[in-house]
Write a structure and sequence with these properties.
about 140 residues, alpha/beta, three-stranded parallel sheet, 5 strands
Length: about 140
C-alpha cells in the first residue's frame, strides 16, 4: 500500500513539473519561412484578393493570367498550375470531345466509353491504354 502512495506521489510530481517546465512544441516564432503554410486547391475561379492570401496555390492551367495577377500582389506565393489528367490533360481541347484519341479513352467492360464532366471522355492511365501515333497516354 505504501508503494502505491509513493508511486502516486511521484506521478503527481512529474505531472506538475511537465506542466511548469513545458517546451513549446508548436513554435510559431519562425517568421521568414520559405515553405508554404496556407494552401488552396483552386480548380477554376477565385479572384486575386482571395488567392493572394495563400502561400501555395494548386490550380488549373487555364487560369494562368489570374495567377500572374496574384503573383504581382503576393510575390512569395508558390503556384502549381496543372491540367486535369482525368479528361485528357494537355491533349484536351475545351468543347471538343473528339480531341482525345479513341485509343486513349477509358472503356467499361462492355466496350462503352466512360465519360466525365458532362460528356468529356475519361482517359486511360493504365498500361492497357492503346497506342495512338505510337504513344500511350500514360
Amino acid at each position: 500500500m505504501k508503494f502505491l502512495k509513493t508511486f502516486g506521489l511521484v506521478i503527481n510530481i512529474l505531472v506538475i513539473f511537465s506542466i511548469i517546465f513545458v517546451e513549446e512544441i508548436f513554435s510559431q516564432r519562425v517568421v521568414d519561412h520559405d515553405f508554404p503554410r496556407l494552401a488552396t486547391l483552386s480548380w477554376g475561379g477565385g479572384n486575386v484578393d482571395w488567392l493572394s492570401r495563400f502561400d501555395l496555390i494548386l490550380g488549373i492551367s487555364q487560369d494562368s493570367q489570374l495567377y500572374r495577377e496574384v503573383k504581382k500582389v503576393n510575390t512569395n506565393v508558390y503556384i502549381l498550375a496543372t491540367s486535369d489528367w482525368n479528361a485528357g490533360g494537355p491533349f484536351r481541347v475545351w468543347g471538343n470531345q473528339e480531341a482525345i484519341a479513341v485509343e486513349w479513352r477509358l472503356r467499361r467492360s462492355d466496350g462503352s466509353y466512360i465519360k466525365v464532366y458532362s460528356g468529356d471522355y475519361f482517359v486511360d492511365p493504365t498500361d492497357y491504354c492503346g497506342l495512338y501515333n505510337g504513344e500511350r497516354y500514360n
